[in-house]
Amino acid sequence: MTLETFAFLLASGLVLGGLYALMASGLAVVWTTLGVFNFAHGAMIALGAYIAWQVTQYTTGGAGFLLGAGVSVAIMFCLGFAMHYVLVKPFELHANLVLLAVITTLAAASIMENAILLSWGPRDKQIAPPFTGNIEFLGTAIGIHDFVILAIALAALLALALFLRRTTAGRALRAVAQNREAAELMGFNVSRLVAMTIGLSAATAALAGVFVGSLRFISPTVGTDPLMKSLIVVILGGVTRFTSPIYAAFIVGLAEAFSAYFLVLYWAPAVLFAMMIIVLLIKPEGLFGRRTRTL
Amino acid sequence: MTPLLAVRNLTKSFGALVAVNDLSFDVMEGEILGIAGPNGSSKSTLFNLISRIPFGADRGEITFDGERIDGQSDHRIAKLGLIRTFQREAVFQSMSCVDNILVAIEQTSGARGRQAERMADEASELVGFPRNFHNLPAATLPVFYQKQLMMTTAVAQNPKLLLLDEPASSLVESEIGWVRETVSELNAMGMTIMLIEHVLPLLMSVSNRLLVMEQGNIIALGDPAEVTRNPAVVEAYLGQPA
Amino acid sequence: MKYAPSFQRTNGFWPVVIALCIAAALPFFFTETHIRHILILIFVYAILASNWDLSLGYGGIVNFAHIAFFAIGLYTYGIAAKIIGLDPWLALLLAPVLAIAFAALLAIPVLRLEGIYVILVTIAAAQLLFQLVVSQGDFTGGTSGMVLIPRLEIVGYRLSSDGRIGYYYLSLLLVVFSTVFLYKLERSALGRAIKALRDNKYYAISRGVSEGRIRLLTLCASAIFPGLAGAFYGAYLRIASPDVFGLGFLTITLSILLLGGISTIWGPLIAAVVITAFAEILADYGASRSIIIAAMIIAVVVVYPGGLYAAMQEIWGLGTRLRTNVTAAWRRRFQASLRQEAMGVKDHLVETRHGPVSVCDTGNGDQTIIFVHGNSSCKEVFRRQFDEFAGQYRLVTFDLPGHGVSPNGNPDEDYAVEAYAEIIRNLVDSLDLKTPIVFGWSLGGYAALEYAARGTP
To answer: Is the peptide bond preceding residue A90 cis, with omega within 30 degrees of 0?
Structure first.
């Protein structure tokens, strides 16, 4: 392998890792707070991409891209906030919460995907990447756009981490994740906090969707693959700390980039799922995790 | 005479906390061994370690009826005839009372159908669990009857050694009378019993020997009347004399 | 003593017989292959969902690789019958064997994990299988799937002939066998152990239930009929596509199970009919159809987490209450003379704290005797006493709520000895009975004792 190939694979692995980190941390935040796996996360990524695409139809260029991302993130936050009251709240004290939430989030995913199909049709779309041009990186040309994506993704993750650790609302969220009853007794409005968590998760999904939409073509089912990848990342990393899925995301991103080069293309996903099962068997709390739930 | 249960150097730690510290004692066939101690003295943990439900010991040997059981799997120990109850009333809440008893019988005796039902009737009779409750869902029973049902499922398995974890907790005086009678009756039938209890008069009246624990250690073991006069025991219960 | 009537003597017997007769007769009313296809789909979904209930509902194992059993059945049949060239019927029987083998493999990680991790590891296992199927294009046809899989024939008669009638009855037969299997299993020693382990794991282990063995058996047992159904599906449609691994198929089956109600054998069967038929009615609406169905699923889960079966039982109960109330009202209105003949006096309704009760009040004398009847009886049982004592005493008797011709009471409040005592008290006040003698028979005796115990004179 030449240095150029290596640099190319490294760069694309890092960009993938940034994307996966964004997707997986959104998924992990909901999981830690509610103990619920959100199957609509993939559809939220798709919906976020389509909303941004719609905005970029009116305003183009870098401003349009950023505006699209902003609008998409804002709308998806509100949608996520509302979703809690429809999909989780009505039975949050029911013994079968985990199972019921699985079916409502699956149904929500179906609603979103089909709503996309109705509103935008089945044809593939792409969000025009606003930053063209390349830069030299270890002897190979890498698109500036990729770097911008990686930078924004990392910035968003940092912002989320700071929010969770440094602000009152963020600390309240972490309190709910650790001990819901205690948080309730302390007088927190747990419902609103949980709704906010889902809102934040939806917002990160939207951002990831915008990036996916500018790197690949988007279709109503564009979220399925990211959902599975986030699942793998969350399992590999564990959810005990906010940072655990992020490390795992970069490992998966790099592994995917390199294995696609070394292995037959079809085998790469199978290897990832096999890895996931092995990790679950040996260390179910994840590679970087301990056996407690915190944000 | 060889003991029915021989415990040697049993130890269990949770992190830095040594919950059970190098415990050794014997349980003789046919006796009732009472176990007392303040809250948090690891009495229930001792039962957990012996039955391996939900966890076993870090170190130590346990021999039951001539067979080493410290390496055996949890359900296998139950099948050998070492049966425990739990401090909190436990039932299979989605099932009828008689199904609760039948599960226990079918798992240990291999009896099925009418024969198993007859054994369930006998066990109910022995414990005094009303047979006309048999077809009620177990979850709808009041606490006392849930405790009775748990005892019935244990007795239905015809245990060699019965570990009773606070059968009298949260019961009123007349119901504690039932515990006393049942324990004595089962013992008279030849069942060996280990009994954890906070209700001291009950413990004193049925136990052949009394074992007192404090912070994972045995501080006294012997004749109940003598043990209660032991200054270490008094101190454990009442604190340092002023 | 165990009250376990044989199936012929339970309330469910006649509905099941009628449903079976209807299912057996349906092909004669619907000769179009399209409608028969829908019916066959209903049967396939019913098998998948009700067997899933065995692991997910009764066993408490949230196995998201359940659909993979079906997929294994499908591909086993396809590969064995088409590529290896095995006799199609043998291939059909081979399918559940491989499904069970996969279930046994699946049990290894499932046994070591709890809660949401079981969901995740089973999703991963199903995805791994999907990736394997897609990557082995030589055998499985890859992403485009297999076509022209051999069909089933009985001595040269194609099951697809005569508007697929053979496949229709084969799938109906599968549903019947699967349901009998589940029904028997749930009532067997194994079924009890499965439920015990779900209800209270450590208590079950302390009674000798082997967690590993029972979980393994649960998963394997739940794989048999989905495996068969998968093979059947392959023989019927003659194609095998990796779409069966998709989230869509899983969502529909899971919603059939959850809407039907978990831990009920009949719920998923009913829901399979309702949801598949509903989806068919909306067939022309394309993407909106999926939205409507998904919204409906959310609505049912939110409003009724217990599922359709629980809702049906509740509606059934409501219906029974309505029917008995109407009967009581009708009898009050039109059969008054009959009762008057028996008791020698006309009854009338008296309002009490626990609703109106029908009262007979007759005889002369300073001393009153109140007669209270027993469970499932009525005031007219005292007609001989009324004949005998009418000269010496004032005689009062009444129908307890929900008995005789009194209207039904509120089940939470009015059917209790305390409530009956209060009714007696209300009657004493409103009819001015002073210090009555209260005569109670059976349940009425408890009510009389309660009345006396309250110290009311």
So the answer is: no
